[in-house]
Amino acid sequence: MNRLTDHLIVISFDCLSSLDYPMLLELPHFRELLTKGFYCKNVESIYPSVTYPCHATIVTGNYPNRHGITNNTFIQPGRLSPDWYWHRKYVKGTTLYDEAKKARMTTAALLWPVTAKANIDYNMPEIFANRSWHNQIMVSLFNGSPLYQLSMNRRFGHLRDGLNQPALDDFVLESTVETIKKKKPDLLMVHFTDLDTQRHYHGFSSEEAHASIRRHDERLGRIVDALKESGIYENSTIVALGDHSALDESKAVQLNVLLKEKGFITVNKKGKVKDWNAYCKGCDGSAYVYVKNNDINTKNAVHALLKELQKDPKNGIENILTGEEAGLLGADEQCAFMLEARKGFYYKDTLEGTFLHTITPEDVKEKRYTYASHGYSPKKEHYQTIFMAAGKGIKKQTNISSMRLIDEGPTFAHLLGLQLGDTDGKVIEEMIER
């Protein structure tokens, strides 16, 4: 295949929504991208529409049940902080960065999800210390490119404030700019989470969220300037995209509290999970319900309970899918059921408290609950994300009415003269300049 660009720069602005389009048009760097190249403001995400499955989809062109990243975190009943799908080994099949590496291209990734221990030349993976004895810097170093990360930390580590935003994205930005100038990678993937954080803890349309979008515009401008300063701008393709949108919420559905009361989950005197026959694994706006060993009696009993709860809209359950139905939508077919929350509700894994919890300012301040989240069905109204691209290989002043997140990976591969094989998505021909 012919290579259509020398440098592909993929910038993921986590939680950027189609509803942000009017604001983006008022900001200079986003406006330039939108008016100069190609865009689609109606991008269908995946199910569940949470960050790790979304980013695995972007680099594989496949739905979660095919690439294997079906949620952000593992099923670890009772753990306050479950482990995440941090590592490349959990992704089934090939990825965009794997194929680029095979073609001897220089690759770089900064906080791109599910890339820990990936074969990437300059890799700063998104992974955090999840045990009391872990050290954040050491965890990052051992799961990415040690010398590269040490260099970035030495230069820009003073900008960071742990995992807090916007300081984390400021650190990532400076590292990105330095990487462009010094390494000039053929493929660069960078993940910014400032907006996602602000929407979680302040609400979808909050001033904090809007301020984050303005910061993202400045970050985009800095990246463009770095491409120009390094002399590779004219031979580069710049992509800015969102992975999912978000919806405001005021109540948390804590199904495990009820499952524990009904005897499906048993705990010891200290409240630790001893055993479980049914367990609800939240994906924020949706949730998987797993039944151990797929026991038919347990499954029937849980289904009856869920159907009874669904009768009352105040319980927040909009839809109940079987595992098979979930699989047809690209989610984990190994679940017994998949639940979709009504607007204003989301799911939590906790076993403590009440089945329904009304979110308070104190809850959010303590980061126990959030004001907005994602994970909902991509078919939900006003819940699309956005995509824009400009530069080498991209048609000028073009837009299409709709596209899917699964189409992005095959299109990126096409631009680099690569192939991802048989994927769920397809190349977006309308954006390619022949």
Describe this structure in words.
The protein is of the alpha/beta class. It folds into two domains: 292 residues, Alkaline Phosphatase, subunit A (3-Layer(aba) Sandwich), CATH 3.40.720; 126 residues, Gyrase A, domain 2 (2-Layer Sandwich). The strands form four sheets. Strands 1, 2, 3, 4, 5, 6, 17, 18 and 19 form a nine-stranded mixed β-sheet that branches. Strands 7, 14, 15 and 16 form a four-stranded mixed β-sheet that branches. The chain has a four-stranded antiparallel β-sheet with strand order 10-11-13-12. The longest helix has 23 residues. The chain starts with 6 loop residues before the first strand and ends in a 19-residue tail after the last helix.
Give a topology summary.
Blueprint: E1 7-13, H1 21-25, H2 28-36, E2 38-44, H3 51-60, H4 64-67, H5 96-102, E3 107-110, E4 122-124, H6 136-143, H7 146-156, H8 167-183, E5 187-192, H9 194-202, H10 207-229, E6 236-241, E7 247-253, H11 255-261, E8 265-267, E9 273-276, E10 278-283, E11 286-291, H12 296-310, E12 317-322, H13 323-328, E13 337-341, E14 344-347, E15 356-358, H14 361-365, E16 372-373, E17 385-391, E18 398-399, E19 403-404, H15 408-415
Parallel strand pairs: 1-5, 1-6, 2-18, 2-19, 3-4, 3-5, 7-14
Antiparallel strand pairs: 2-17, 6-17, 7-15, 7-16, 8-9, 10-11, 11-13, 12-13
